[in-house]
Amino acid sequence: MSSPPTAPPQPPVTTPDGEPPHRRGPLGTALAFLRNTWRGLTSMRTALVLLFLLALAALPGALLPQRSLNAFLVDDFYADHPTAAPIVEVLGGFEVFASPWFAAIYLLLMISLVGCVLPRSLEYWRGMRQPPVATPRNLARLPHHAAADTTEEPDAALARARGLLRGWRRTERSEPGGVRTISAEKGFLRETGNLVFHLSLIGILLGLAGGKMYGYEGDVIVRADGSEFCNSSILGYDTFRAGLRVDGTNLNEFCVRVDRFAGTWLPNGQPATFGADVAYQSGADLRSGVTSWRPERIAVNHPLRTDGDRVYLTGYGYAPEFTVTWPDGQSRSSDIQWRPVDTSGSQLSEGATKFERPGVEDPEQRRTTQIAVTGTFAPTGAIGPDGELVSVHPDLRAPTADVNVMLGDLGIDDGRGQSIFTVDQQKIDSGELRTVAEDRMGIGDTVRLPDGTTVRFDGVTPWVNLQVGHDPGQLWVLGAAIVMVGGLALSLSIKRRRFWVRVHPSGDGSRIELGGLARTDRAGYGEEFDRLADDLLAPTDKKDG
Amino acid sequence: MLVDPITSMWSDRLFQGTLVVLLLAMVFTSLEYAAARVARVARKEPATVGAGAEDTTGTAVEVTEPPADASDGAGDRPTRTRSDRYGRIGVSLMILAVLLHAGSIVLRGLATYRWPLGNMYEFTSALCLMAVGAWLVLVRKHPTLRPAGVFVLTPVLLLMFLTGTVLYAEAAPVVPALQSYWIIIHVTTITLASGMMLVPGVASLLFLIKRNERPAALAAKLPGAEVLDRLAYRVTVFAFPLYTFGIITGAVWAEAAWGRFWGWDPKETVAFVAWVLYAAYLHARATAGWRSSRAAWINSAGFATIVFNLFFINMVVAGLHSYAGV
Ligand code: HEM
Question: Where is this region: Disordered (chain B) (predicted)?
């Protein structure tokens, strides 16, 4: 699209008056309209305007909270701007990059780009197969010119010119009176670079679109104690975002076993390294019945890659284990994960570990005997200014839990989905779920409920959050992007130049005239032309033309 | 030991030294600029004759650089020497500043045992180094540009001052996400490109001032509009592919670090906007009617976007890049 500055001005956008005067039928009118629309769309000016629109349209994506990035910030925005938020919502302001107007802009831009670049490239390609244009009659009228009389024979002068113009596309012509000329041209690769650049933009877009259609992404929490996760169905995930063409039945199967979470921190609690020692079985392993596992370490900046799927470590936390022992001697243990709630990185966590009394079948009774151990967990506990539990380090140095044991109806039988991290607030509000004991516990501590039931804090298991990503388009995008940079460098660094030599035979030698025209980056041709002219006219006294 | 306090102290001292030397360079380039004006007015006549000769070439829009600033006029020797002398001192000081500055950055890396581009302080500092470095290279190739040096030093000093105060960060290790060789590839290319872009950004603004003759006092003393326009174009053409490469390496890194290569994180989005603006600049340069003033506006907007990305997005909007922190 970056036509050289010497290109003729673009055709006017729509000029019905420019059409031939004979009368047209409706079909003709429609065709003319289409043709004019096409011309308008593929003009440079339109491309420019579309580029601006694209930049402008992307900006709100950085300034407004985006749901795909952080839904909580969108909720905050709703709370802060209750009147504006619904309007922004309708305009697609919270999902800018999925909005129809954003898509409309870049699709129009792509069309404009193809329509602009292809015909031009074709034209240049034809030009390239024709000999360089004939030498203008009056070289002195060109932006660059020089002339000199020399004692050199015309043939010798021409031979030297040929030598200097090695690598240029040249053609020689004769003019009346024994005058000979060379027309030379170079820089056609620039157009090639330009074409490659623009076409690879479309390649990037196609790769992106394909990746979005056929890709998926899911998150799952896995305890780092030898627990396994298998990528066999959506059900294994905590959250799953599927592309349009993914229904979840055809996931690449593989299994990951998380053996250990390892983190190191600076004294101030700033993380230094994170990693998880895992082992995995690839799809091929599973299909061929291999039973051994391949060891691997997933760390920040180092995902596990298997058959086009990537497994990332995106977070970690702790699962405190509690054992409830009822007065009749029965007991149950659970180590469901709690979630970090402190964003400053101390890994202070909250959660709800839920228990049902074994052997209780009667629904009425079930509703009074369910237990939830809720509260706060600190991997390195300390007492805050108001006596509350705080965590002073994210590592497990002094695991402490402030528990709040609740008894009653957890609402499990109501058929509503429950968060694993919280208890049903409605049940607390209605009094069906009550706090029966509160305590601060270290590992091994026990708290006794009024009915004699005991809750023991047994220990802590770390867990990791794994994110599985599948994007069949990404290598295409990368390839197209690399080609794009190459094309860009080519088209910006190569300059299109024309150079003419005319040699007149004269009494005892010849008169040499030179002319030059830059078709791109005109300003830069001066020195280059002068160098050529100096070399060509070197043995002679150069007369300025 | 995670940080070597002595080395990091010396890094800070060199930074302060750089600031002082740049300030001095600024003084001398201002003096040069002021003196150069006198000289140019004095030799206005021969200059016009030269331009007239150029014009006879009809369609020629070819612009040569204006004759070397006053330095070849034999008649006004006193002014010439003064302006020239100030200019030379200014350039020497800038070279000294670059050396000190590079030393400061290298020591920062040695003190922290990592690539010294891990936070906004280090990033902006390196950006300024790049801008001054790019300017020195340009002045070497095109000595006639030298009197405009003060306009490059002004924003650089402003940035340097902010860097040393608001953005200053103690030498420290970086978070795990930044512990990757990609920081060397991605952040370094982005820094190079952003620092270089400062020059065309300034050149385009000066071009607009020159074009519109407003403010007149400033416009009169500036190098020719064509020289500025060409400067902006040449440097942009160099820096733009580099910026593109920097964004692509960022995407490759993001694929390994964040689980996707492009996610419209605020930093990514604004980088995209800047990229599109520079693309628009290059297109405008090739479109009739957009070539001069509008193109210059776009180029300035492009650099403004890069600065916006650096400050606003890092400090106000929360995103994945935020850990690079203040
Ligand atoms: C698609 C992905 C990415 C894009 C488009 C991108 C773009 C950029 C841009 C434009 C800058 C210049 C900053 C400025 O002007 O302030 C920058 C700086 C930086 N990027 Fe990236 N980047 C990407 C991925 C990454 C990743 C994955 C990391 C590290 C995990 C990273 C780390 C940094 C750092 C440390 C800086 C310099 C410090 C700063 O500006 O805060 N980037 N990036």
Answer: 49-83
Q: Please indicate whether residue B271, judged by its CB atom, sits closer than 6 Å to ligand 1.
A: yes
* Cβ separation B176–A274 shorter than 8 A: yes
Mean pLDDT estimate for chain B = 82
Q: Please enumerate, as own/partner, the contacts of A356-365 that have beta carbons within 8 Å and a separation of 24 or more.
A: A356/A332, A356/A412, A357/A326, A357/A330, A358/A326, A358/A330, A358/A332, A359/A330, A363/A413
The 3-class SS string of chain B reads: CCCCHHHHHHHHHHHHHHHHHHHHHHHHHHHHHHHHHHHHHHCHHHHHHHHHHHHCCCCCCCCCCCCCCCCCCCCCHHHHHHHHHHHHHHHHHHHHHHHHHHHHHHHHHHHHCCCCCCCHHHHHHHHHHHHHHHHHHHHHHCHHHHHHHHHHHHHHHHHHHHHHCCCCCCCCCCCHHHCCCHHHHHHHHHHHHHHHHHHHHHHHHHHHHHHHCCCHHHHHHCCCHHHHHHHHHHHHHHHHHHHHHHHHHHHHHHHHHCCCCCCCCHHHHHHHHHHHHHHHHHHHCCCCCCCCHHHHHHHHHHHHHHHHHHHHHHHCCCCHHHHHCC
Place of tokens 């990746």: A211
Per-residue pLDDT reduced to its tens digit, A149-182: 888 888 888 998 999 898 899 999 998 888 999 9
Contact between chains at B259 and A488 (C-beta distance less than 8 A)? no
The segment(s) of chain A belonging to CATH 3.30.310.80 are 135-187+495-544
User: Separation of B310 CA from ligand 1 center, angstroms?
Assistant: 9
Q: Would the CB atoms of A2 and B285 count as touching at under 8 Å? A: yes
**What are the distances in angstroms from CA A402 to CA A348, A374, A423, A437, A443?**
11, 8, 16, 11, 12
The answer to whether residue B78 scores a pLDDT higher than 60 is no
Q: What is the pTM of this model?
A: 0.82
10 Å CB burial of residue A395 (0-12, 13-18, 19+) is: middle
Q: Is residue B326 included in any domain, yes or no?
A: no
Residue B325 lies in a domain: no
By residue range, what is the domain housing residue B303? 5-320
Q: What is the pLDDT of residues B268-312, one digit of tens each?
A: 999 999 999 999 999 998 887 888 889 999 999 999 999 999 888
Kindly state whether residue B110 falls inside one of the protein's structural domains.
Answer: yes
What tens digit of pLDDT does each residue of B94-129 get? 999 999 999 999 999 999 889 999 888 999 999 999
What's the pLDDT band for A23 if we cut at 50, 70, 90?
low
Query: Model confidence over B37-74: pLDDT tens digits?
Result: 544 444 443 333 333 333 333 333 333 334 444 344 44
> Measured on CA atoms in the order A143, A148, A152, A153, is the torsion positive or negative?
positive
User: Going by CA atoms, what residue is nearest to atom 24 of ligand 1?
Assistant: B250
Question: Are A303 and B259 in contact (CB < 8 Å)?
Answer: yes
> Which of A47, A97, A300 shows the shortest C-beta gap to B283?
A47
B interface test, pick of A300, A467, A482 with most B CB neighbours within 10 Å: A300
Is B29 inside any structural domain? yes
Q: Is residue B307 in contact with ligand 1, taking CB distance under 6 Å?
A: no
pLDDT at residue B51 in the model: 35
Mention every residue, 6+ apart, whose C-beta is less than 8 A from residue B170.
B3, B8
**Smallest Cα distance from B215 to chain A, Å:** 27
Kind and range of the H or E run holding A315: strand A309-325
* Torsion angle of the four alpha carbons A131, A133, A138, A141, in this order, in degrees rounded to the nearest 10: -140
Ligand 1 contact via B123 beta carbon (within 6 Å): yes
Query: What is A135-187+495-544's CATH number?
Result: 3.30.310.80
Could you report the per-residue pLDDT of A45-81, keeping only the tens digit for each? Answer: 888 999 999 999 999 998 898 888 888 888 888 999 9
What's the number of domains chain B is made of?
Answer: 1
